[in-house]
Amino acid sequence: MEKKKLLEKLKEKILMEKLPLKETATNIVFGKGNPEARIMFIGEAPGRNEDLEGQPFVGAAGKQLDKLLNSIGLSIEDVYIANILKYRPPNNRNPNPEEIKAHTPYLVEQIKIIKPEIVCTLGNYATKFVLASFDVEGMKKIGGITYLHGKPVDKEINGLKFKVIPLYHPAAILYRPQLRNALEEDFRKIKELL
User: Where are the beta strands (DSSP E) in 44-193?
Assistant: First the structure.
C-alpha cells in the first residue's frame, strides 16, 4: 500500500481513539507535506492556529519554518511535518509525560511509513523523544536543545536508519530573535547533508 494511503489509515485510527487532549481540541493535527520526503520535521504540539486549521505549522512559527526551508531551496512539497502531540494542549501549555506516551506511538508509525533519511526535531520535546529512541522515560536523560542543536546524530530504531538533526523550534526566534543566526546555520547543515 502506498505511503499516502497508509498515513490516511493511521489518521483514521487516531480519530477513533480516546486520546488525551482530544476533548479540548478543535481538530486533529496529523501532519502535512510529502509522504515520499527524504526529510521529516517533528514539532512539539499544535498551537491555536494549527488546532483551528487541523494542519501543523500554519501560524507565525510555520511562516518562520517556511522561510528557513526556502533559504535552503526547500518547500513543504519537499518535506513531511508532524508533531509529538496530535491534539493541542489547552492554552499551549507544555505536554505532560502521559500525553506524550499516549500520542507518540502514532508519530513513530508516521516515521515508519515515511522512512525519512533525515529527521529534524524542533525544540526540546521532539529532540528528547527521538534521541531517547522513542522512550518517554528516557527523555529525562537527554540534554537540552541549547546544547544539542545543529549536531547530527545517527539513529537506528527498529531497523530504520536515519540522521537526527536537533533544531531550535522556529517559534523560539519569535521570542528570542538572537537565535535566528544559529537556526539559519543549522538549516545550512541540513542542506549539506541532503
Answer: 79-83, 118-122, 153-157, 160-167
